[in-house]
Amino acid sequence: MTTPALGTSVPSADDDRATWWRSAVTYQLYIRSFADGDGDGLGDVAGIRSRLPYLASLGVDAIWINPWYPSPQADGGYDVSDYRTLDPVFGDLAAGQALIDDAHRLGLRVILDVVPNHTSDEHPWFQAALAGGPDAPERSRYIFRPGRGTDGSLPPNDWRSVFGGSAWQRVTEPDGTPGEWYLHLFDVKQPDLDWSSPEVRAEFRDVLRFWFDRGADGFRIDVAHGLVKDPALPDLGLDTEVILSQPDRADHPHWDRPGVHEIWREWRAVADEYDPPRTFVAEAWVASSDRLADYLRPDELHSAFDFELVRAPWHARELRRTISTSLAAHDTVGAPVTWVLSNHDITRHVTRYGRAIRAGEPPLHHEEVSGAPGDDPLHGGGGPVDVALGTRRARAALLMELALPGAVYLFQGEELGLPEVEDLPEDVLQDPVWERSGHTQRGRDGCRVPIPWTRSGPSLGFGSGPGWLPQPPDWSELSAEAQEADRSSMLWLYREALQLRRELPMLGDSTAPMRWVDSGNDVVAFTRGDSFTCIVNAGPSPVALPRGHVVLASGPVDGELPPDTAAWVLTSG
Ligand code: NOJ
Questions:
Q1: DSSP state string for 385-428
Q2: 368 is catalytic
Q3: Which atom from ligand 1 is nearest to the alpha carbon of 223?
Q4: Rounded distance from Cα 572 to ligand 1 centre (Å)
Q5: CATH class of 20-118+198-230+240-495
Q6: Residue nearest to atom 5 of ligand 1 (CA)
Q7: Domains of the chain by residue range
Q8: 516 Cα to the center of ligand 1, angstroms
Q9: What is the CATH number of domain 512-570?
Q10: How would you classify residue 564: left for phi > 0, otherwise alpha for psi between -120 and 50, otherwise beta?
């Protein structure tokens, strides 16, 4: 039995230069942890350049580089002190330019990361705001307010930082007295900008042009749902922790406010000044796919990460429901879905899938990425992990994801099947979440451990010395070198799947309709066009394979499809 087609309202991609992002597979480079070219323990541009051929041969279409700008690195570079060059620990502007040019020569597009919600407290604008005192015009670029209470010693409202604790910090004025407070929805070193300031708006339009002029093909937009705040700064209410996990609350004072859309229209106009037009992908943690689609209206952003698959448990009915909901919402605005399974803020999916399924559990709505409680699906909950099970499911999930209509972002290391490192020693943890949560949440370092390139060496080929976080010794066998030699490895599955996805015209954001195929409760199966079926067995028993030729499977298949396995099947018509 088939159901009506999904994901078919999109126009066909007749101009790849302008529409490449609709189908693209983009590889996320967390620069600190990808490859260390100078042996200082931190990844850098030289390291990335040396590994570009690996990425080209993996078969991805584009790379997204996490922030590489000068930064005190209080939040892995999401605390920017200068938006127009590179941090010397990563390289210089010329090196960045050379990387963009190298990537282009290899046919890879380059997405940079822009951080418009906040700057570093070491940004010259914030330093001027501090130095100028309460009446300084520079303060209007940020959100400074007097405190409450007779002596102003209480924060202006009850908002909480995503990383834990109050979202307000009191400053000492130039005359040495305790003074105003400033808002920081993230770390204390990340003061929020005030987007009602025309200067702030003009500055970021200029920053976009700066990098577009240097060949950047687009930007990933950090916290795209957070820029606009209710100017009255109302209290959230007494039970702040509960409210933080309910972004679907109507009229939330700092998440997903209608005013953000005007900013995205302005940015779209900047991207459209270029030939070919540049592109945006939003990080927007919003309450529903419908709310996400608002960001993707034709005059706003091109794409936005769809985190619904991340939130969904490994359960066929949940996966089908999630996929249908996302496709339907995106269809209303003619945008492709941008599928994601892992990134630098989320527990790696091998580990998430290696925990027990909590079937029937409603997906948690969570607008924040890190202050998440221990049983949050974004972090895979607590409890023991069966890495072999998680790896089988991750292999199957890849084939599902790559067969769906739309675009895909991969996170570095998922092609090696890296699990989350959940036992990093406390004294190496660097995520601000660890300190701000009073050591109750370890934060996101476990998905940011440096990539193992070789079987041996001080940091398994990451660099010539130890990396900034230690790798588990058994990652030697997960290294790219070890997997290169094993055709059944995760690395080869990624290569083969990506190559086939390029060759099979019905995949990606093609006009080939997707239709569900009813294959039982435990199965996710769908067709693309007339001759392609993707079938995923998320249940405990083998299921029948559709008739046809299995062109790729995530594990051994022998007439039947075993549990936690997926296959791509072609019929000759
Ligand atoms: C989202 C980024 O992905 C995350 O790493 C960062 O901590 C916050 N935004 C704040 O910039």
A1: --HHHHHHHHHHHHHHHHHSSSEEEEETTGGGTPPP-TT--GGG
A2: no
A3: 9
A4: 46
A5: alpha beta
A6: 345
A7: 20-118+198-230+240-495, 124-183, 512-570
A8: 35
A9: 2.60.40.1180
A10: left
Residue 516 · residue 3 · CB < 8 Å: yes
Question: Which of 220, 158, 226 lies closest to 190, judged by CA?
Answer: 226
* Active-site pick, 16, 239, 262, 273: 273
Q: Helix 387-403 to helix 490-503 angle, to the nearest 10 degrees?
A: 10
Q: Please report how the helices 93-105 and 45-58 are oriented relative to each other, as an axis angle in degrees rounded to 10.
A: 10
Active site residue 92: no
* CATH code of the region 124-183: 3.90.400.10
pLDDT in tens, the chain (573 residues): 344 566 544 444 446 999 999 999 999 999 999 999 999 999 999 999 999 999 999 999 999 999 999 999 999 999 999 999 999 999 999 999 999 999 999 999 999 999 999 999 999 999 999 999 999 999 999 999 999 999 999 999 999 999 999 999 999 999 999 999 999 999 999 999 999 999 999 999 999 999 999 999 999 999 999 999 999 999 998 565 544 455 566 689 999 999 999 999 999 999 999 999 999 999 999 999 999 999 999 999 999 999 999 999 999 999 999 999 999 999 999 999 999 999 999 999 999 999 866 443 333 322 222 223 334 555 555 678 999 999 999 999 999 999 999 999 999 999 999 999 999 999 999 999 999 999 999 999 999 999 999 999 999 999 999 999 999 999 999 999 999 999 999 999 999 999 999 999 999 998 899 999 999 999 999 999 999 999 999 999 999 999 999 999 999 998 999 999 999 999 975
- Annotated catalytic residue, options 79, 180, 192, 222: 222
Distance 546 CA to ligand 1 centre (A): 43
